[in-house]
């Protein structure tokens, strides 16, 4: 994995209910939404496509 102190901004639009429900689950397992998106992107890179 490439590590850097620099960050890039990502703007995402989604249905409010999906965001609310997803954030509740992430919060219950102690993961910030930005970290979850980063993990998802890492999996996209590893799988060279969607990881599902």
Run of helices and strands? HH
Helix content: 40-55%
Identify the overall geometry: globular
* Rg result: 13 Å
Query: Hey, roughly how much beta strand do the residues contain?
Result: under 5%
C-alpha end-to-end distance: 20 Å
Count the E strands. Answer: 0
Summarize the model shown.
By secondary structure, this protein is mostly helical. The chain contains two helices and no strands.
Describe the 3D structure:
The chain has 52 residues and is mainly alpha-helical. 54% of the residues lie in helices and 0% in strands. The chain has helices at 16-28, 33-47.
Observed structural traits:
52 residues, single chain, mainly alpha
Describe the SSE topology:
Layout: H1 16-28, H2 33-47
